[in-house]
Amino acid sequence: TVPLSPASQILSNEEKRANFDRYGDAGESQGFSQQQHRQFHRFHDGFYFDESFFHFPFNSERRDASDEKYLLHFSHYINEIVPDSFKKPYLIKITSDWCFSCIHIEPVWKEVAQELEALGAGIGVVHAGYERRLAHHLGAHSTPTLLGLINGKITFFHSAVVRENLRQFVENLLPGNLVEKITDKNYVRFLSDWKKDNKPHVLLFDHMPVVPLLYKLIAFAYRDYLSFGYVYVGLRGTEELSSQYNINVYTPTMMIFKEHIDRPADVVQAREMKKQLIDDFLSQNKFLMVARLTSQRLFQELCPVKKSHRQRKHCVILLTGEGEKFAEAYEAFLAFAVANTKDTLKFVYVYNDRQPEFADALLMDRGKSGVVILERRNNAGKIVYKALEEPWQGSKEDNFILLDLLDQLRTDPGLLSSETVVADLNDELAPVFLIRWFYSTLDYISDCWDSLFHSNWREMMPLLSLLFSALFILFGTVIVQAFSDSSDTRDSQPSEKEETAAKTEKNDASFSKESNRIPKKGFVEVTELTDINYTSNLVRLRPGHMNVVLILSNSTKTPLLQKFALEVYTFTGSSSLHFSFLSLDKHREWLEYLLEFAQDAAPIPNQYDKHFLERDYTGYVLALNGHKKYFCLFKPHRAGDEGGTLGSCEDYDASLHAEARGKPSCSPGSRSIKNKLHKLSFWMERLLEGSLQRFYIPSWPALD
């Protein structure tokens, strides 16, 4: 075979040929040329942009790897981060590619994230480009955005991104009463609250004037199990406390006190208190030697369900009462528990009066103290137990009997022969409803205050826009109403009809006594039905609309209109009802024509009857449906319906006939006229229900 020349090799290989055309070389320097070329991105013919010149990692491939372990996804945030925020606060950064400000704060963020994570705070990073749903859920409208999460609540960071501000921001997320300042004056009271709080108490001795952030984070994580106090050993007024417990003022010290306040149950000292050291120390001392069962959660933690024979744990429960009467039995049980502490045994006690269902399931007599050894079998409340036959008094004989049962239990688990199901324990330390409501209200007000003054104004713009719109509408309504009222007061002199109505109203003393609720002007609009508006108000009335027409005369106009307004006042909100009145003196023939189609309800007298022209239709009410050509009729009721105000008179029409014959009748004064429209409101209700009788006519007559 004849070896090819270098030129032939380049020409025969398309890749080498392309490299030679582009870089002028395809030999040993080819790798360097290609590597050098990868550092450039083609921007324009003859011009190349070098990112390394500016040191800006714009693309995701060159993003800082330290953020990778903090990246959050939506499901991870909802299912893990939010529940975990009840144990520790989280500092979350929302970032994106092509963000100059994100690159600017990166060194500070990296330093603070490592520092806070070592102290026990949570760190999270959300990439808005890939997790838009989570970024929108957190309320981030720009990048970078820093926020804090604690107890499921979000708080935004709005200060300069420096180390001190970020540390202070995380510290401000924590509640203010986590750690109590302890001195010689209050340490006895603090340590003596173990029985009321049902918690061990922790004293932190350090030479820092303020409580370190590490201690506050630890106190927040263990706040459900322990109460924390801080002693500044350099402060005057702590010498007695330091000397009593032999504290080394140069070394941070942590002590746990349980049932005995004169000596600590456990102590740890270290020049540098690390989080892992404190966690191990506190996790081993979360409960009292003999804790009181105050909730179902505590019962499940102290007495876990049996999972296997190797993980078998038993609870020795003292069921007793409160007060000095049972103090001796409790002290004897506590001494027995201290002397016989084991990993497989938990000693607890229950107040019978506070947990009556639990006590009744295990004891025959709640008035006496008793000891029960039990084992939980499932989370549904099933237990197996063995109760001491005699009440617990704390004597030596009782101690021997209990100790013998525990020795037998190690070799014979079948000793627990009784079986029952107990209900969940009551939460004794839960606040009452009013206190919970009060604290919830305070939290809501504080959240609103924080949102208003410390949140991003861009986030507050929709709320502020809605608030100012509502205020503008309210203010405009008030101004329009004020001008409307002022124009009403400046109206011209009252017309002749209004003067007549005013005079009649003054003379009608009986009507004023019975009802002071006279509708104001504009509340009930009643127009007169005349030949001018007859077509628009009746003949061409829109489908579904009705005109309620009151029949009156000139002499009865004012009282009938007043009573009519009172009766139909509650129906004025319906847009399909219109209210009018018809003068009987002008349009009697029109009315009698309509009534001919309702002979059963309102018979018309014969024209040869001498009382033909004396027929009184005042007080009649017609509901006219102009589109479907029918009407409903309301006839005045008997005057006796008002409770006998008019004696035993019958229908008002009959009284008029009797008067015409010369017989005595009731005086048709304003009261009797008003009584004509009695129960009109009930008739209106039936009208809207559609249960009234309808009288159809072929066509509407002309109104001359």
Give an account of the 3D structure.
With 704 residues, the protein is α/β, with parallel strands linked by helices. The chain folds into six domains: 1-29, no CATH class; 60-160, Glutaredoxin (3-Layer(aba) Sandwich), CATH 3.40.30; 179-283, 3-Layer(aba) Sandwich (Glutaredoxin), CATH 3.40.30.10; 292-421, Glutaredoxin; 433-485, no CATH class; 507-696, 3-Layer(aba) Sandwich (Glutaredoxin), CATH 3.40.30. It has 26 helices and 23 strands. The strands form five sheets. A six-stranded mixed β-sheet has the order 12-14-13-15-16-17, with helices on both faces. Strands 18-20-19-21-22-23 form a six-stranded mixed β-sheet, with helices on one face. The longest helix has 33 residues, at 457-489. The termini are far apart.
Brief write-up:
With 704 residues, this protein is of the alpha/beta class. It has a 6-stranded mixed beta sheet, with helices on both faces. Strands 18-20-19-21-22-23 form a 6-stranded mixed beta sheet, with helices on one face. The chain has a 5-stranded mixed beta sheet with strand order 7-9-8-10-11. A hairpin with a 2-residue loop joins strand 5 and strand 6.
